[in-house]
Amino acid sequence: MKDWRNSAEYKRWKLAVRIRDGQCIVCGKFEGKLDCHHIIPDRPAQFYKYRTDVNNGVLLCAHNHSMGCWSAHKNPLWFSDWLKKNRPAQYYLAMERLKKIEDENNS
């Protein structure tokens, strides 16, 4: 299976997230390594429909993405709380989508 992260669709998503946010949404860093983070993960298959929706992405520096102890990957509960307080529209959209996926899986 081809890695979708090499696709034009993924590259467009990353560019759209970078243009919208412009800097790490947590600390404001705008130089160096900045990563596009999926709020709802890009895998497994039931999450695929959201993986290139710009509302399902945020721009984070490497520290706040995956390196620091208070990062989206190492401490997802912290990140979820941060997102709820600082980006409520994206947080509640993600929660609504996850509920829909859960309901679909349980029917």
Written account of the structure:
With 107 residues, this protein is mainly alpha-helical. It has one domain. Helix content is 47%, strand content 9%. The protein has 4 helices and 2 strands; from the N terminus they run αββααα. A two-stranded antiparallel ribbon has the order 1-2. Helix 3 crosses helix 4. It is globular and about 45 Å long. The chain starts with 7 loop residues before the first helix and ends with a helix. The model has no long low-confidence stretch (mean pLDDT 94).
How would you summarize the topology of this molecule?
Blueprint: H1 8-21, E1 34-38, E2 57-61, H2 62-67, H3 76-86, H4 88-106
Helix pairs in contact: 3-4
Uncertain spans: none
Count of distinct structural domains: 1
- Largest sheet: number of strands, sense, barrel closure: 2 strands, antiparallel
Count of beta strands = 2
Main traits of this protein?
globular, 107 residues, 4 helices, mainly alpha, two-stranded antiparallel sheet
In brief, what are we looking at here?
The chain has 4 helices and 2 strands; from the N terminus they run αββααα. It has helices spanning 8-21, 62-67, 76-86, 88-106; strands spanning 34-38, 57-61.
